[in-house]
Amino acid sequence: MPAAWDVLSDADFILMKTDTLKIVVFCDFDGTVTCRDSCDDFFRRFGEFDIHYACLAAGQINVAEYYRRVCASLPEDLSNESVEQFATDCEVDAYFGEFVRFCRDKSLPLIVVSDGFDRYIYPILRQIGEKVEVKCNILNGSQPVFPGASESCQCFCASCKRNVLLGISDDTLTVYIGDGLSDICAVEYADVVFAKGVLAAHCNKHKIPHHPFRTFADVLHILRKHFENKTIRRRRQAELKRLAAFEAE
């Protein structure tokens, strides 16, 4: 065990000093950065959302097949101007821009992980005026591409967010911020979790330690306190899950 770690009395956590630790922040997009599920709203506006989502909700198809069907329903002449107008209409968490600047000031890599699509995510992010690294699905015309697809995981995603977390070095502390079903797999492997909505209910049910939040103002307040105290907690169960995943590959 590295010398910078001090074992806490709480067996589920390891205390690590923030000035000797690399921290990476992962953040969901739809319903977390945006105030509503912008992926659903995108397909509601431009595609045939209701009929295909009903099949997904009924368990008749998986997420990847849902995306194939709803993407195929998009008009061939969907213009960039229409998508830009959609992005303008999307409400973004009022504190997200400040959160991006906080991460930059603290030299914290911030990665948006989404099971949504680049076609609308990048235009929405441009509205904020901040550059953020994004890992998401790709929309080529009406054809979806899932760069993070995983046969080893049965999570509620077409692209597994867990694999993005596992792609970083093992001596890194991971912070995860999310709200929905597509985040459930990833938080099992994250050290510090911020959760709201369905994700918070899942964390409560499965006793996953997390910080409840409503907006990024709450996230900022908690992370600033961590940095003021120069300590942050790494979750032992998440570390064990990451090790097991690596061994299974």
Verbal overview:
- The structure is a single chain.
- By secondary structure, this protein is α/β, with parallel strands linked by helices.
- The protein has a single domain, classed as Rossmann fold, CATH 3.40.50.1000.
- It has helices spanning 38-46, 49-57, 63-72, 80-89, 96-105, 118-128, 162-166, 184-187, 197-205, 216-229, 236-248; strands spanning 5-7, 13-17, 22-27, 110-117, 133-140, 143-145, 172-178, 192-195, 211-212, 231-235.
- A 7-stranded mixed sheet has the order 6-5-4-3-7-8-9. Strands 1-2-10 form a 3-stranded antiparallel sheet.
- Strand 8 (192-195), helix 9 and strand 9 form a beta-alpha-beta unit.
- It starts with a strand and ends with a helix.
The tally of helices reads 11
CATH topology category name? Rossmann fold
Structural class: alpha/beta
Give me the strand/helix succession.
EEEHHHHHEHEEHEHEHEHEH
Query: Based on the structure given, which CATH architecture is correct?
Result: 3-Layer(aba) Sandwich
CATH hierarchy, class: Alpha Beta
> How are strands sequenced across the largest beta sheet?
6-5-4-3-7-8-9
Give a count of the beta strands, DSSP E runs of length 2 or more. 10
Percentage of residues in DSSP E strands:
15-25%
Overall mean pLDDT stands at 88
Largest sheet: 7 strands, mixed
Which stretches are poorly predicted, pLDDT < 50 over at least 5 residues? 1-16
Short description:
Helix content is 42%, strand content 20%.
Which descriptors would you attach to this protein?
10 strands; alpha/beta; globular; 249 residues; seven-stranded mixed sheet; Rossmann fold
